[in-house]
Specification:
3-stranded antiparallel beta sheet; 249 residues; 6-stranded mixed beta sheet; alpha/beta; ATP hydrolysis activity; binds adenosine-5'-triphosphate; single chain
């Protein structure tokens, strides 16, 4: 599948008001995210990773700088997955997905096909008629991903989507996500604290500094996808990211 949706960040700056002043968070972030790339963003707690992702999603306006998505933001389907599932508890799983499709103007006639396909991707076909409160945390997060996938994202933005899951569930879901990405090759941007996760997924890892935040380093990761989480090669990627973060290995 051919997609052409690189993202260019140019000189992004962002401060937040504080009592009696302001906190300069992003201090000029420029970055070219390549078409179909899997890019992870890591850095110290509070350095502005979520702020940056929200600026890419156009949910927060930067004070200065631009985000350019090719060919244009309105022509690109952006899926977003956060740490906690944000589902409508009073709608079934299928209705939650259909709600997202309706919001994008997808014809009703296509909803059934699209929701089925997305639920099958995340292995939740059997749960289409359940309500979110009757699902486990891991299942709800899979619905969250299905909702992002059902719109056929050109760009997928993820903010620590696996961090609230137990390791076994997280591992299974990561595998599923990397397989889907490997098939579809959308442009993926992942914010994570988990260095092993960044090593597992990424073509490139951006290491942010403390505030006021700049890009401290980028780590290019060679090697085929999907990777084995515990292989010697993946562990070596992990060591290189830790080194870039200044963590002794
Ligand atoms: N709406 C807001 N108003 C004021 N300050 C904010 C707001 N949102 C974030 N901040 C502050 O901006 C800084 C960056 O926050 P952000 O959540 O982007 O960082 P992060 O790197 O994602 O953090 P973490 O790794 O801990 O999740 C923090 O000091 C935070 O307190």
């Amino acid at each position: 599948m051919t997609r052409r949706h690189p993202i260019r960040l140019d000189g992004i700056e962002k401060s937040y008001p504080t009592e009696g002043g302001s906190l300069r968070v992003l201090d000029g972030i420029s970055l070219d995210i390549r078409d179909g790339e899997f890019l992870s963003i890591v850095g110290p707690s509070g350095c502005g990773k979520s702020t940056l992702l929200n600026i890419i999603a156009d949910w927060i306006a930067p004070d200065a700088g631009t985000v350019e998505i090719t060919p244009s933001r309105s022509d690109v389907q952006i899926g977003v997955v956060f740490q906690e599932p944000t589902l409508l508890d009073w709608r079934t799983v299928r209705q939650n997905l259909a709600f997202a499709l309706r919001g994008l103007g997808v014809p009703e006639a296509a909803h059934d096909r699209e929701t089925r396909a997305a639920l099958e991707l995340v292995g939740l076909s059997e749960s289409a008629n359940q309500y979110p409160p009757t699902l486990s945390g891991g299942m709800r997060q899979r619905v969250n991903f299905a909702r992002a996938f059902c719109v056929g994202p050109d760009v997928l933005l993820m903010d620590e989507p696996f961090s609230s899951l137990d390791e076994l569930t997280a591992r299974a879901l990561r595998e599923r996500v990397v397989d889907i990405w490997d098939d579809e090759r959308f442009t993926a941007v992942l914010v994570t604290h988990d260095i092993a996760e960044a090593a597992y997924f990424s073509d490139r890892v951006v290491v942010l500094s403390d505030t006021p935040t700049v890009i401290e380093k980028t780590v290019d990761i060679e090697g085929d996808q999907p990777r084995e989480p515990q292989s010697e090669e993946t562990l070596e990627h992990e060591r290189r990211i830790l080194e870039a973060l200044g963590v002794p290995t």
